[in-house]
Structures are given as C-alpha cells and as structure tokens.
Design brief:
The protein has 34 helices and twelve strands.
Length: about 750
Amino acid sequence: MSSITAECLQTICLNYIATNLSEFTQGAVGENHERRLVFKDGNVILHQELAEQLLKKLSKLGLLNDAVLSLFRRETAGPIRRACLRHANLSSKGLRALSTQKLLELDATSLHGVNVNGIIGAQGEWTRKNLKSLVVSRCTFMNTSKYCIVISLPQLKSLRHLDVSYTEFGYNLGLECVVSDLPRLESLDISGTLVYNIQPLLALRDTLRALSLFKTRVPDKDLIPIVMEMHALRHLDISQDSVPHSIGSKNRGRAAMAQFLNTTSALPNIVSLDLSGRDDLLDEMLENFVLSHPRLRFLGLALSQEVCESPFFKEKHYKEYNSDLKIAGQGSEDQILEALLRYKQRPFYGHKLLRCLFNMTQYIEKEPKPQLVKAILPQMRANPKHLGVQMAASACLYNLTKNRLGEGIHVSLLSKMVHLILQAMENFSSQQQLQKNALLTLCSDRILQEVNFDRYKASRMVMDCLFVFDDHSITRMAVAICSILAAKISTVQTTWLGTKRNMVKLLQIVKQKADARTVDITLKFTLSALWNLTDESPATCAIFLNECGLDLFIDILEAFKNEAALQTKVLGLINNIAEVQSLRHTLMRADFIDHCRKLLFNPQIEVSYFAAGIVAHLLHEGPEIWAFTEGKRADLRATLHKSISGWQNPEGEMVAYRSFSPFIPLLTCYPIWEVQLWSVWAIHHVCSKNPSKYCPMLLKEGGVSILEDIRSEDVTLAVHRDVLELVGKVLDIVQWNAKTAPQATPTTAKAAVGNAAGT
C-alpha cells in the first residue's frame, strides 16, 4: 500500500464543483446591470471554510473571472477572511464583488487586468483598515500612463505581511513609504524588485521578523551590514539566482559574507536563513554560525558550490549533525526534497536540482519514493514552459515509477503526474528526448490500466509522435500505449482516433514488419492498436478496407502460419469487420474463407475462436451473399460445429467486450443453429470468467430475455441440444450472480487480454 493516500472526500467534491460550476449556477443581472453568477438553488450559502477553499481551487484551476468571482459576494458566501486570486484575470469592477467581505488576507499573485492600486481600491473600507496580509507578487504598480504608483499601500495601516516581489516596487518611491506608513509591518518580501538601497529598513530593526531579498539588486557590501543590525529577524532570505559577474564586487561581497558568518552575535533570533545560490560560503564559517544559532531550523544552501556536501549537513551519524535543521541543497536526497518544495518559483534552481535528483534515482529498484514524485510535480506545474525543468522532471519521474516502483504510489498522485506529463508533451511537441521521457513513463501497466486521466488526449498525442519522430524506440512505445488506451476510450473516441492518417501510418508499420518477416513487440502492439481502433467503429473498419488492410492481413496469415499471437490479432480485427453487416461482403473471398476454415482447428483456442466468429457472422448472411458457393456454406456449417464442439473453456478470460450488441442478431439465427452455438459459447465464456461485469451487461442489453425465449417451450423443438445446454449454463450463471454480486461494473473495449509488456 502506498504511503501517499487518497484525497479526502471534501477535496474530491471541491474538484468536481469547481470543474462543473455550470451545473450548480446560472447567469443573472446585478443591481448595476453587471453580469454575475448565482446558485440555481437560492438557499445555498457557502460557509467560510468552504468558500475560501472553493475560491482557492477555482484560482488554481485558472477558472476565476469576473462572473465566477461574483459568486463570492457576502450574500452567497461568507464571511470570507482569506481570499486567493492567484493567476486570475479580473477587472476592477469584478474585484468589487469582494468589497462586502471583511478580508484579513489577500493573495493576488500574478493577477492580471488590474494594477496594485486597483486591487487595493476595489476592497471595502473595513478590509483596507484591517487587512493583515497582502501578496501582490508579479503584479504591476504601473498605471495606463506607465507611471509607477504606490500611493495605495499606506492605506493598509494594519498590514503585517507585504509581498511585492517581482514588481516595479522601489522605482523612485516605495520602501521609504512602506517603512514610514506601515508601522505594524513584520514581514516583507522585496525579492526581484527595483530596490537598490535598503537603508530605510533600519527603522524596522526592532520589529521586522521576516525579510526576503532573493535576487536583490543591492550589493552584498551594502546589504550585509544592514541585515546584521536587524536584530528581530527570524526569517531571512538573501539567496541569489546567480553569482555576481564583477570580480571586484564578488570579492567585496565575499568579505562581507565572511564578516556576517563570523559574527556569532548577528541575528540572535534567526530560525530560517536562506543563502542558496552563493559561492562565497566556507564550510568552517558556516558550521560555526549554525552552532552559535541553536534556534536555526532551516538553512538554504542550494547551488552553493560544495558546502552542502559537508558531513556536518548530510551525515546523520556525524556527531554534530542536527536532525532538527532542514537543509535545502543538492548534497542528499533529503536536501533536494526540501529544496524542490521551497523553490517552486525558481526554474533555474529547479532545473539544477532535478538534474541532481535524476543522477541519484537512476538505480532505484525496490523502494518506492512517492514523496519525491510529490515534490517534483509542483516544479512542473509552476514552470510549464521551461524546457530544462520539464526535461529533467520527466526523466526523474520515469526513474521513480519504472518497473514495479509505480505500484507503491497512489493512483491519485499518478493521475496528477500523468496530467503534467501530457501538458509537457503538448508544450514541447518537437523535443524528441522529452517526448521519449514521457513515453517511457506512460508505458506502465499500472498507469495505463488503473490511473484516471484523459486517455483520448493521451492517445492522440502519443499517435502524433509517430509522425514527428523517426525513432524505433519511440515507435515501439507509442504503438504499445495506443494499443492499450484505444481499448479504454469510447467508441466515439476510437472513431476520432482512427482517422485515415493514423490508420495508414499503423498499416505502414505492419507492412514494413511483414515485408521484413520480422515478428517483434512493435508489430504485435501495432496489430493490437488496429484491432482496438476498429472495435464497434464501422467508419474505421471502412478505412482499413479502403487502405488495402485486408490484403495485408491475409498476407500475414500466409507468412506467419506458426505465430498464434499474430493470427489472433489479425482475426480479431477482421472479426470487427464481420460484425458490420454492410462490410461483410468484402470478406467473401475464397482465399480468405479457406484460411478461416483451416484456422478453425488451430490448436490455440484464441485463433480458432476468432476464426469461428468471422465464419459465424458470414453464415448469418442470407443465401444471396453465398450464391457463388452455396456448397461451401453447408460445408462451413458442419466445420464450425465440429470446431466449437472440440473447445474447452480456457481458465482465463481470453477476450473482453464493450457490449453484447454484435451477438444479439446471432442469438436469434434459428435456421443456422451453428451461428447460435458460437454466439452462446462466446457469451458463456465471458460470463463464466467475469460474471460481475458481463451478467449485468447481458441483462441490460436484452440478452437474458432472448436466452430465456430460446429455452422456452414454444421454440425448443427448433433449437439444437448443444445450444440449449449452453443457454442453460449462461442463465444459471446470471441467476447466481444476481444473488451474490448484483452490482454493475464499467465496461472495457474488446481486445485480447494483455498488458504493456506485450503478447
């Protein structure tokens, strides 16, 4: 059992509501003639926790807009204290939906459509007076005239946490204003801003507890002395994205850092210190600093040369190793895990860390590591267009889920993983190595059989790889994945997937292998893919015939007479064609019928079974289609009966069906009881092997009533005793299943039972 458990019911419900909002809401017109949404049930009012979580979920899914936000007015949701509007595209007018709420925390990271002043101005008076936390990272302070305006910030007199990272904050005015007008400020994030001078922060030296200066423009020689005077700091981030280019500034910065680390009295209350990305750290100095600061619980050392490799930070048996101190670095698996979780918004870090993780996970064989998978996914989600992150992440995910490792990871986590892998495939459709990484990961029995994801989208994207890349390994994996997924999508979707373009490509692969007389896994999976794409899809069957597929398949039967696996797949596909009444005439070829007659007595029951299925469907046609060879028809009837009479029901389920619709017409073929016999034998086989699935299906589709009619007294004299015997067995199974397992189960597509390892 995996250590990452299923999502809680509330999370599942929130996901459903957020992605199906139209089922619960309807459009309306507000008092000011604005378009808004209301709940269809007028009695619905979201309580605080649910409203906040639903707002956050909608934001995360990118579904938040003006109309959706109108659902969170005070009269239908409330009272909301924490509002998450991350990555939303909203107008000032739309934001006013929250003006009646009394917010204490507002996260507007990467909000588009409104500048920071507009975000603040759209809030109600109570919120502006009492708001304690504001995050406007990656927003803009610029107005329509391209002037940077920060005049709204001083209104937030109760603000304790302010995050203006990656904005124009610091241009002309900003930091001085914040320091003088926000007296309660305890936490400030000015990472990646235009602040060049942090001297004003000294006014907060006794009150500021958290300061983030990642990617700061302030040189170390000016930064470090001021930071050392901030006695109240508990959390400090002075990490860098890359080392300074100037040798002079580098040397001066190294001297300042050495002074900082050697001053044991500096930052006496520090709990979290991030020095990642620096190459000016020395092991001995850093170790002494850590030992002199016993309250320290986190230390960021990622991308900081070799310092995180010190036994002091990674060897648990080392005498001075501190198990309470979390290290973000690349010196060990634990360090990388910590770093990946902390640095989701730093693609440069993510790429480097994931490359290190790839090297560490190449030889994992037995111990599943779901915690690592869980840490990689946020990196992919946060950096969808960064090729380095996606490439390294996809390679790591393959290492962590290959072979049997995926069995130790919960399907809900694997589902999220596959979604992000498909997104990476879509964003980088021409990157061969990334596509190969993705295919390697997807080519897993557990993923393809048990995990919930958009299988049609995956099938379509995997099929596209066959056209973009001329690579044997990609072709092998692509057809393997398609062969399994085509059996798990709807018949409508198989028709969409079975386009002329795709069918021709698959037939080309088969012909290349057949011409070379090569029997390999690629050929077997390609035949399976074609088989499943033609299942209950007359249009795809017609394309197969129009592209000379029947001639090719007859050649395969002739060329590979001892390959039962190939014969089964070939006959299975042709059986799909035989089920389509309008196409049966194309099979009325003397050479093909002779092949079927011979294969009726193949020692492999799968081969004999599908050959018999084709013959049964052809015999079901009237004498007119057999006009040229009525003698062969009578001979085939006797041969079919003899073949079926020699079958023993195999131990395993050798075929799966979407429905019994192809069998229903055959069941009532009283004049040709051999056709009835094959149909009832097939139904008996699947019902005896998987009664919980097929018995409800047979009942729902009317098969049970037809079988009961066959057994009834008024037609008994017209039914062969072999048919009656099997009919009785099927009805007994149905009756037994109704008593012991009456529930229905989902259906799957018709295909020989197999897996991604291939048969």
